[in-house]
Amino acid sequence: MAGVLTPLLLACAALVAGVIQRITGLGFVLVLTAPVILLYGAYTGTAMSVFLALIASLAALPLVWKQIVWRRVLWLLLPAAVVAPLTAWAVRLLPEPAMLLLIAALAAFALTASRIPGFSRLYHGRSGTLTAGASAGALHVASGMSGPVLGAYAVATGWEQRSFAASVQAVFVGLSLLAVLFRGLPPVPASDLVWGGVATATGIVVGSLLVRFVPAPIARQGMLGFAWLGTIVVFVRGIVALAG
Known about the structure:
The chain is mainly alpha-helical. The longest helix has 28 residues.
C-alpha cells in the first residue's frame, strides 16, 4: 500500500505546486519541499524537489521563450556554475537533522527576504549580478530555493516584471541542471520520477488554463500559506530528529 501511496501523494503535491508556479511565476519548490521531505527524507526529498523544479521550468519555457533576455541569464548562470560543486560537496557532509533545520531556515528566509530592508541593494552593477548568480546557485543546489535572491536582484536592477518572469524560467532550468549534475538524480523508483514529472507538467498546463481566472493575489496567498505550513513541519521534524 505504501508503495502505491507515496507516488500518489507526490503527484498531488507536484500538481498543486505546478499550478501555483504557472499562476504566480514562483513558489514551486516552496510548496513542494515539505511534502517530499516528509515522503522521502531530507536528502532525497531535496533532490526530488530540484528534479521536479527542472521539469516545471522546462514545461514553462516554451510559453515564455520570446520574452527571455539570454544575456542576463548567462551572467547569472556563470557564477552559479562555479559555486554549485562546492555547495553539493558541503551538503553531503551535513547530518540529516542539520539538513532539515537548514532547509527550514532557507525556506523561512525565502519567505521573508523581500521584506528585509536594503536586501536588494546587494545586487547593483555587474558585481551584483555575479553575487546574485552565485547566491542563487548555492541556494538552489542546497534546497532549490533560489527565487528570493533572483527576485531581489530583479528589484535592484529594475528588471521589467514580464521579462524577468520569463527569463527566470531559463535561469531555473540552468540551476536545476547544475543541481542534478552535482547532486545526482533522487534515489527513488523510476516510477516515482515519472509520476512526479507528469504531475508537474500537468500542473503547468492546468495553471496556464487557470491563470486568466484565478486572481494572482489569491494564488500568492495560497502559496504562502502552504509554504509556511510546510516550513514549520520541516522545522519540527528537524528538532525531533536532533533530539532523538
